[in-house]
Amino acid sequence: MENSKTKITAEVGKQEIFIIREFDAKPELVFQAHTEPDLLVQWMGLENHTMEIATLENKNFGAWRFIHTDESGNSFGFNGVIHETDFAKRIIRTFEFEGLPEKGHVSLEFLNFEALPNDRTKLTTQVIFKSIEDRDAMIQSGMEHGVVDSYNKLDNLLSKR
Amino acid sequence: MENSKTKITAEVGKQEIFIIREFDAKPELVFQAHTEPDLLVQWMGLENHTMEIATLENKNFGAWRFIHTDESGNSFGFNGVIHETDFAKRIIRTFEFEGLPEKGHVSLEFLNFEALPNDRTKLTTQVIFKSIEDRDAMIQSGMEHGVVDSYNKLDNLLSKR
């Protein structure tokens, strides 16, 4: 899967995905857009959804919970816990979608912020899943659309700063 | 890898392992042995090591940190955060060995406690790793020895209760 700017790789037989995206801003700014609530709500989620931050403890062993709501008022909750957050460099956190029929389908996300020349950033997100089936269900759910929409909004936000 | 009682499966080309072990005690007891500090220190770790619990917050989004010390006084730290803990049923938590040359090699553990007939328990631990290399390094480090020693000590502890 490759959008003009966002590259998503899901190798056959593996229980992981990689999402690679470059941004025209320094790692410090891209990182802050991921951790400061007033910035995060401006870009994360589908184009026509709103986002509410129920919890966001930006520290090692801190909890997070986000709620996305569509135009019809349907809400989708996500939560997890942060194993490590290292300013402008890395975030490692668990992720669970609350709308699944069964609890326990938790994944682990590794976000790496890498400085590029000309004050640009390469963000690589690796997600490891409990199973290949969990990974493929996430892809089928329209994850790519959500990621592409979000990062386009983030481009827009970063261009204003 | 198969000990008389402990079965460890690491399929070629996968970034996960499964550890399966049955215990002659109810899930409630086996679970408590994993979450109550005074019980945990009696069985977790190699036969000739001692264990100290630096942190153990037995709750969703709670942190943990354990320190194992060998006969020569060398210490080995491990830490992580609990995504979910569900009494006598399940624990989902991150895991990181502090002695690696580089931070960030975090894995995600799923412990499932299943009731068997005759007040027995089947404990299935799935661990998913950042890479196949991370998994294989963990196996090479002598993980099997640690798991087998630990579970034999746990058998002993459970038989006294």
Oligomer: homodimer
Mean pLDDT of chain A: 95
Uncertain stretches of chain A: none
- Name the structural class of chain A: alpha+beta
CATH architecture title of chain A: 2-Layer Sandwich
Globally, the shape of chain A reads globular
Q: Can you give the helix content of chain A as a percent range?
A: 10-25%
What is the helix tally of chain A? 4
Rg of chain A, rounded, reads: 15 Å
Name the chain pair with the biggest interface and residue counts per chain. Answer: A-B, 27 and 27 residues
Termini gap of chain A: 30 Å
**CATH first level of chain A: which class?**
Alpha Beta
Question: Quick one: how many beta strands of chain A?
Answer: 8
Family (chains A, B): Belongs to the AHA1 family.
Protein name (chains A, B): SRPBCC family protein
InterPro entries (chains A, B): ASHA1/2-like_C, START-like_dom_sf
